[in-house]
Amino acid sequence: MTSKDRGILIVLSGPSGVGKGTVCKALRSCTPELIYSVSATTREPREGEVEGVNYFFKSREQFQQLIHDDQVLEWAEYVGNYYGTPRKFVEDTLNAGKDIILEIEVQGALKVKQKFAEGVFIFLLPPSMDELENRIVGRGTESEESIRSRMSVAMDEIRLMEHYDYAIVNDRVENACSRIKSIIEAEHCRKDRVVSKIKQWMAEVN
Amino acid sequence: MTSKDRGILIVLSGPSGVGKGTVCKALRSCTPELIYSVSATTREPREGEVEGVNYFFKSREQFQQLIHDDQVLEWAEYVGNYYGTPRKFVEDTLNAGKDIILEIEVQGALKVKQKFAEGVFIFLLPPSMDELENRIVGRGTESEESIRSRMSVAMDEIRLMEHYDYAIVNDRVENACSRIKSIIEAEHCRKDRVVSKIKQWMAEVN
Fold first, then answer.
1. Taking each helix axis from N to C terminus, what angle separates B129-138 and B144-159, rounded to the nearest 10 degrees?
2. Are B21 and B169 spatial neighbours (Cβ–Cβ below 8 Å)?
3. What does the protein in this record do (chains A, B) (predicted)?
4. C-beta atoms of B191 and A123 within 8 A
5. Which of A36, A117, A135, A139 has the smallest set of CB atoms within 10 Å of its CB?
6. Domain B38-97 in CATH: superfamily?
């Protein structure tokens, strides 16, 4: 039943330091059928980077046109370059019946939600606030003041959890992956996603 | 995190002939931690039946008192005996942090929903309407008229799917079990179930 249905956009987010990247990397190896959203950027390709795999490389004019045409689900500017999530790649993947995952920081995820409310928004939590502090301290490069400031940002980010559909604890990477896989399977079974198909059956029988 | 949380009531329902009993039996072997709701009845215990395992055996007066005290989530009378789902066993299991599953026909499930809207309601579907007819015919004991009548009842029951949270296809028993397990894991990750715990953390840190 799943193969012919539209795919689901999964947005994985959470505070800085929680391990989004590590979980996403582990997901790649255990769920090869899941597609990863490819960002667009105006920065120059680095050696070995492949168009459509690492990024969609765009000129500033092209990127601004995409923004103007509502073709980026979220975007930001860093150090003079645009980065964003192109809508077309997401839509094409979903229309092909495949699920797509987007790993993104908390503010970016909320922007995506404004344009794509039918996505499934998953918030990754640390096992405890102490553990989040350990992970931030563990990077070893931060002053005490910087750590306090990063913890305060993380707390603000965690407060934004209420805008998400699910919140999962990243106690162990395997557990977090298992929870994400279960969420994806369960979301495919949500009545609202199945009901139109069933109405079709019923009409054929009557 | 799950162990200290309140458990979830899972209600598994679906049209007659869809294989609810078979799926539930398979679930028992693959998810031993899941508790099964035990019904109350006024009929006499049969040989080997154990109080609190097969049924809670009650007198008519006791059962009527339970109904009066709103202590049954649903009940019905068959051949002069009451059958129903006692609220206390469900509540005690949930308060102990364990999930409990109730297998029940479609009308009974909707009654449970009226009293226990926080349950997770799963509708089991046949792989197709043809397959449902095969299963009903396959019992081999029914006249053509009886088959038509049973199919018509099944269609009416499938229309009630809209009141459920999830709809899963019973194409293979193992697949149906996997979907139910995923739904249970995903439901434990729903933001609303996690948020109170997180607010507690935040308060401790501040």
1. 140
2. no
3. Essential for recycling GMP and indirectly, cGMP.
4. yes
5. A117
6. Guanylate Kinase phosphate binding domain (3.30.63.10)
